[in-house]
Amino acid sequence: MICIKCSLLLMVAILIFSSAINQPADAACPVGGCGAGDDSWLTSAQSFISSDVPLVGASASANAGSDFAYSRSFRAGPQVKSITNNSTASTIPSLAEAYVTPGSREELFVYPQMLKSLDSLSRDEAALDVSAGRSPGQSRIRGAVNIPAGRFFHENGTLRNISDLASLLGQAGISGSDSLMVYSESFKSGEATAVLYALRCLGHDGARALDGGLDNWMAASLPLESRETVRSPTSYLPGRPLESPADYDLVRSGRVQMVDARRIQEFGREKIGNATWISPESLLVEGRLKSNLNDTFARLNTSQTTVVYSDDIFGASLVWFALELMGYDARIYRWQDWQEHEDRSS
After folding, report:
1. Superfamily of domain 248-345
2. pLDDT-derived band of residue 228, with 50, 70 and 90 as boundaries?
């Protein structure tokens, strides 16, 4: 923009200089006297520089007060569309998104042991990318292997049997003793928390979910790579289960408090007992768990077992994970199982 103005100023100078040469001897002097030509030009030039006259490719800005010279008067015009390679598309955060500060947020949670801070991995940690539809060449966290979250569950949302899961993890080079960070492209998808839940049902005590998704990792400028990581197959030995799904008898017992994680319309039509509705989206700010979860869980009793139910394992796992971090004893229950039992009893 400054270069364009410099060119225009040069043209003005040439015109003024030519006018001065061709001026008749008896012509009247300009205001200020015959010796005021240079001063008059400088005044005009400075007035032009300070003006809000729009230039080609720029438009007047409504934002004032910028420290950068002239940015108070102009802003960039429309962006030119660039050609992208869709075969290697990735969830790179847009430039408009705020930079994410890496590091631990453990102080925000009562029981943060299942949360992996948004920080670089140590040599002893392995990374498991559970994003669906990953393609070769896409950016990923350094050293991560990919197992889509859907492979841990049947289509109805139930966990696959222990032997199938052990084989799935062992073939990917993951052992039951690994210190494992689980993540997906975005935390809000619930893929990472659902797989963490599955791993804890297998007794994998060293598994944690990343505090955010790959989008937050990239926004924090943490290490990435595009090459695919291949680990040597190993034997995965399940341990003592750390989690177990809730069953119909427990839900019917009345000894637990219920949380409905379905859509509000479904909650309004039918629910289990005096269930409290908590939307998975209400737990998040900028793709990560928000800092004031106590406000969201204010109606719940921390000393009572909490059962989260939904027809979607991914949404239910987000609420389960947040409850666990805040010190609740939380379980997951399938809404479909409730319907099946109720239909049989009616």
Report:
1. Rhodanese-like domain (3.40.250.10)
2. confident
